[in-house]
Design goal:
CATH architecture of the largest domain: 3-Layer(aba) Sandwich
Active site: 282, 286, 479
Catalytic activity: Release of an N-terminal tripeptide from a polypeptide
Shape: globular
Oligomer: single chain
Main location: secreted
Function: Secreted tripeptidyl-peptidase which degrades proteins at acidic pHs and is involved in virulence.
CATH topology of the largest domain: Rossmann fold
Region (Disordered): 260-279
Largest sheet: 8 strands, mixed
Radius of gyration: 25 Å
Structural class: alpha/beta
CATH class of the largest domain: Alpha Beta
CATH superfamily of the largest domain: Peptidase S8/S53 domain
Number of domains: 2
Length: 575
């Protein structure tokens, strides 16, 4: 009797010390290894994994409605951007979700950290052995053949059945790192002794700040509102060089101080070393044209380091970091993108909703559309058209590229098309219907006729002059047109702030509702996938690839200020 009692007590003790067994349900799986990766052996049981739980958000539909309410001209709430707390409330999980997930984590001895104000992202670290048990997974080492980089991933995972409807997804698990990014296609050194004073004022040969000021009517006088800021995203160890910026300003903005610069905001242990050899082509381009065009607007270079496990170069970490700031930049320019098919809907949708949060708070978010025509971010073989993300998110503004100046034409590399993940948003529905009617059965079956169309605007993107590692040369790409466009928005925000008005925030409803602020690009196409892609043509209103509008503000800069309630007389030095 004594021995039996001790055995029962021992079993009871063991049961109390071990998490209760739960019925598990498969949550996600992939049938194959992504192209470019090879599978190695199982990950070491003792290796630590930094995992995140994306919890189901309480009211994403309410967030979308709130975003449109504050962004659509004519709305009673137009311009009344949400506070950090108000935006976060829509994405916050319900109390039931929080309690259920936290109870499960606690059972397993895990304390998680919230990554943003909404609390819909939780982070924790566990050894591989525990991760395999928690998620009924097999975490394995995979190697990317062309870079040699390794990633620990699993081809399938499960979660407790009673947490279905509470956990959206676990990350990183079945989503592999992405190494395809959009950046300028080439750097072409210039042989001639090139300065702003030696260049023609138009953009006929090379694109410089002064030619853009003339072409688009951009003011050269400095902004006055220190609260109005512009952010520039930096990924994959692309570093912005101060010495190159100084030389750029000395040569191409001699009317302003060459000491004008940017501050650095670091995410994921990002850095910004200043040796000449570490200067980044993309980072230099982005900062030289935001500092050089958005004169006097405080500029923040956001350096996102490689200390992240999200597998998509820190995009998730950057947006969560910005959502956690009480005063994020009023414009965010990002010249990096992915091919949409490389990302699952869960990740893309979560990122898109995060952009909606930031937009609802008054930030204009611009992304380059990519440089592969209808083949995606960069030219490649394909049988169906490849859209790019985040350009396909309906809550951001996608920027394409033009070239020449009399007239401007669509740059043939500039990506554009239709999303396979996101439906046509209401602000462009009439434009898309008109365009689809005009092309009939052209390229039938190669794109999604019900998808969100992109890009939304365009600007110069060919033969854009920069300084790179002390050398003056030119680059091409939608990576050029994006910071140029973002800078114009930042200058308009300066005028709005000075007039006591709110910043523009999410741009698309305003843009599509006011086509006269833009000029049609009526020639050029974007070939790819063994086709001519989509052809530029006169459109009903602004906003989709066939129209391919340039961001034109020559006679329309004053028009835009008038539209926003700022008298033209308040526009400094406009001629």
């Amino acid at each position: 009797m004594v021995a039996t009692g001790l055995l029962v007590a021992s079993l009871f003790t063991l049961a109390c010390g071990k998490p209760l067994s739960r019925l598990m349900q498969r949550h996600d799986a992939r049938s194959d290894i992504p192209s470019g990766f090879v599978q190695g052996g199982s990950a070491s049981p003792d290796a630590m994994l930094k995992l995140r739980l994306a919890l189901v958000q309480s009211d994403p539909a309410g967030l979308e409605k709130a975003l449109y309410d504050v962004s659509t001209p004519g709305s009673a709430l137009y311009g009344q951007h949400l506070t950090q707390e108000e935006a976060a409330a829509f994405a916050a999980p319900t109390s039931e979700t929080q309690q259920a997930v936290n109870a499960w984590l606690s059972e397993n001895g895990i304390t998680a950290t919230a990554l943003n104000p909404a609390g819909d992202w939780l982070s924790f670290s566990v050894p591989v052995s525990q991760a395999n048990e928690l998620f009924d997974a097999d975490f394995t080492v995979f190697t990317h053949e062309s870079t040699g980089k390794q990633a620990v991933r699993t081809l399938s995972y499960s979660i407790p059945a009673d947490l279905q409807g509470h956990i959206d997804f676990v990350h990183p698990t079945t989503v592999f790192p992405q190494f395809k990014i959009n950046r300028p296609v080439t750097f072409k050194p210039l042989k001639k002794n090139l300065t702003e004073r030696a260049l023609p004022s138009s953009c006929a040969t090379e694109v410089t700040p002064s030619c853009l000021q003339e072409l688009y009517g951009i003011p050269s006088t400095a902004a006055t509102q220190s609260s109005n800021t512009i952010g520039v995203s930096g990924f994959i160890e692309e570093f912005a060089n101060q010495a190159d910026l100084k030389k750029f300003l000395e040569n191409f903005r001699p009317d302003i101080s060459s000491s004008d610069t940017f501050t650095v905001d670091e995410v994921d242990d990002g850095t910004n070393p200043q040796s000449e050899s570490e200067a980044g082509l993309e980072a230099n381009l982005d900062t030289q044209y935001t500092v050089g065009i958005a004169t006097g607007v405080p500029n923040i270079f956001i350096s996102v380091g490689e200390e992240n496990s999200d597998g998509i170069d820190g995009f998730l970490d950057e947006i969560n970091a910005l959502l956690s700031q009480s005063n994020p930049p009023h414009v965010l320019s990002t010249s990096y993108s992915f091919n949409e098919p490389d990302l699952p809907f869960s990740i893309a949708n979560n990122l898109c909703n995060a952009y909606a949060q930031l937009g609802a708070r008054g930030t204009s978010i611009l992304f380059s559309s990519g440089d592969g025509g209808v083949s995606g971010g960069q030219s490649e073989e394909c049988s169906t058209f490849v859209p790019t993300f985040p350009s396909t998110c309906p809550f951001v503004t996608s920027v394409g590229a033009t070239q020449d100046s009399s007239p401007e034409v669509a740059a043939d590399f500039s990506s554009g098309g239709f999303s396979t993940l996101f439906a046509i948003p209401s602000y462009q529905s009439a434009d898309v219907a008109s365009f689809l009617s005009s092309i009939g059965t052209t390229n039938s079956g190669k794109f999604n006729r019900t998808g969100r169309a992109f890009p939304d605007i365009s600007a110069q993107g060919v033969d854009v002059v920069i300084v790179f590692q002390t050398e003056i040369g030119t680059v091409d790409g939608t990576s050029c047109s994006t910071p140029i466009s973002a800078s114009i928005i930042a200058l308009i925000n300066d005028e709005l702030t000075a007039a006591g008005k709110s910043t523009l925030g999410f741009l698309n409803p305003l843009f599509y509702a006011n086509p006269s602020a833009f000029t049609d690009i009526t020639s050029g196409d974007n070939p790819g996938c063994d086709t001519n892609g989509f052809s530029a043509a006169v459109a009903r209103t602004t906003g989709y690839w066939s129209r391919y509008p340039q961001l034109r503000v020559a006679e329309n800069y004053c028009w835009t200020l008038g539209l926003l309630g700022i008298p033209v007389m308040n526009f400094r030095n406009y001629e």
